[in-house]
Write a structure and sequence with these properties.
heterodimer, A: 235 residues, alpha/beta, D-Maltodextrin-Binding Protein, domain 2, 2 domains, 5-stranded mixed sheet, 9 helices, B: 237 residues, mainly alpha, MetI-like fold, ABC transporter permease (chain B), AA_ABC_transptr_permease_3TM (chain B), cell membrane (chain B), transport (chain B), MetI-like (chain B)
């Protein structure tokens, strides 16, 4: 019996629905991994801010919640290999005069980013001539973008694409993907976090990720949610 | 994406049932915390006006700590700290054992101790408003210390402390929103999930605000009732 912690408020990766169901890419992947490992899994939803402490305190055994693998986090938890890696992108108003997303393009502009994310670290190191506004979650800066308070926002491309499809997102468009996107900042993508020292569980999960990549289960789940391959480059 | 009516409907298409459950969690947490906080607060107030210097100091340290720490830190200390602590102790006896500290209980304890620290100050000022003569009168007609406290001092104390306590109750009701950080699905957590999933933050956060406002209005009615019951009748002198 494996207890899996997730956030439940990050569509389309993991979110609760109006009828109390937990759905999303992370959830489907988790279920596929559990089936592959032949263990029963139980999901626990937990607010993002307390998710690593809750893992360490033993409230659950693994976090499958689109958590980016970063050196900072790796000091506190052990990660599996990535199970997906979508690029970071910037979005802005439809009538935005911006033609690119380099440091020079965005000089003097205000960029909204969620704090405690890799996007925030990247934006504050890259766009040093811009004003970086930190928000608790993407929801708030997207709201501010549609209110016209921001010139651009930076987030995962899948999150931005999803939002652009909604009525609120009608105001805006993708401005582009910053390049290069160094691994030192963005990490190797999203991995599964487990408590330090649980090497056995990490190995089992890694084997299961490889297995569902190989047997087509991964692609089936990928295509259910995305028009592009979220896994990123093979490694 | 549905209409406002659908989004706020009861059942599998709407979020009303989820948010209603959140209201239930918020209210039950606040109601469960109240007696705990009042009781601890009362005894801390007694300690702070004790004739024994060490007891006074203990009371003062208690209020300094729990009024000084941010509520969220206290909450994390109780929820994660207690779990790790208790687990470490139990594992010395039985290795591999896991303990699960309940998030409702943790929330109750954390909010309770913070609440009690403030309550003790309210009680302390109420104690000071009661003239020495009231105690002396009680002893003079042969009441014991306990009886004097219960029959003479306490009724007056409640009357004087009530406005301050009512204030703290309303603050407590809203502070329960912090427990969403430890995995309790209260009003704010459910509204936040609904806002992000449906991408209707204004609607759902306004609805949450309305829920808190309703709870506050209902509380005010209750407080008025108690105020009338303990009444304006000043004892005849």
């Amino acid at each position: 019996m494996l207890k899996i912690g997730t956030e439940g408020a990050y569509p389309p990766f993991n979110n609760l629905t109006a009828d109390g169901q937990l759905v999303g890419f992370d959830i489907d992947i988790a279920n596929a991994l559990c089936a592959e490992m032949k263990v029963t899994c139980e999901f626990v939803t937990q607010d993002w801010d307390g998710i690593i402490p809750a893992l360490q305190a033993g409230k659950f055994d693994a976090i499958i919640a689109s958590m980016s693998i970063t050196p900072e986090r790796a000091e506190k938890v052990d990660f599996t290999q990535k199970y997906y890696n979508t690029p970071s992108a910037l979005a802005g108003p439809k009538d935005s005069p911006l033609t690119g997303v380099t440091k020079a393009d965005l000089a003097g502009k205000t960029i909204g980013v969620a704090t405690s994310t890799t996007h925030f670290n990247y934006a504050s190191q890259t766009y040093t001539d811009s004003t970086i506004k930190g928000y608790p979650t993407s929801q708030e800066f997207l709201l501010d973008l549609s209110n016209g308070r921001l010139d651009a926002v930076e987030d995962d491309i899948s999150v931005l694409e999803e939002w652009l499809k909604t009525p609120d997102g009608a105001c805006c468009k993708l401005l582009g993907q910053p390049s290069p996107q160094p691994d030192e900042i963005f990490g190797q993508g999203a991995g599964i976090a487990v408590r330090k020292g649980e090497t056995d569980l990490v190995n089992k999960l890694n084997a299961a990720i490889k297995a569902i990549r190989a047997n087509g289960k991964y692609k089936e789940i990928n295509d259910k949610y995305f028009s592009f391959d979220v896994y990123g480059s093979e490694n | 994406m549905g209409s406002i009516g659908t989004l706020l409907s009861w059942g599998s298409d709407g979020w009303l049932d989820e948010i209603a459950y959140g209201v239930f969690v918020t209210v039950s947490l606040a109601v469960a915390t109240l007696p705990l906080g009042l009781l601890i607060g009362f005894f801390v107030a007694l300690a702070k006006q004790s004739s024994e210097a060490s007891v006074r100091m203990a009371g003062n340290i208690y209020t300094t700590i729990f009024r000084g720490l941010p509520e969220l830190v206290t909450l994390f200390l109780v929820y994660y700290g207690a779990q790790i602590g208790i687990q470490a102790v139990i594992r010395t006896v039985q290795p591999g054992a896991t303990v699960d500290v309940n998030s409702f209980i943790s929330g109750m304890v954390a909010l309770g101790v913070v609440f009690s620290a403030y309550v003790s100050e309210v009680f302390l000022s109420a104690f000071r408003a009661i003239p020495r003569g009231q105690y002396e009168g009680g002893y003079a007609i042969g009441l014991t210390k306990g009886q004097t406290m219960r029959l003479v001092v306490l009724p007056q104390l409640i009357r004087i402390a009530l406005p301050g306590l009512a204030n703290l109750w309303l603050i407590l009701l809203k502070e329960t929103a912090l427990v969403s950080a430890i995995g309790l699905n209260d009003i704010l957590r459910w509204s936040g999930i609904a806002a992000r999933v449906e991408r209707e933050p204004f609607l759902f956060y306004s609805f949450a605000a309305l829920m808190y406002l309703c709870l506050t209005i209902i509380s005010s009615f209750g407080i008025n009732k108690i105020e009338r019951a303990v009444g304006p009748q000043e004892p005849a002198r």
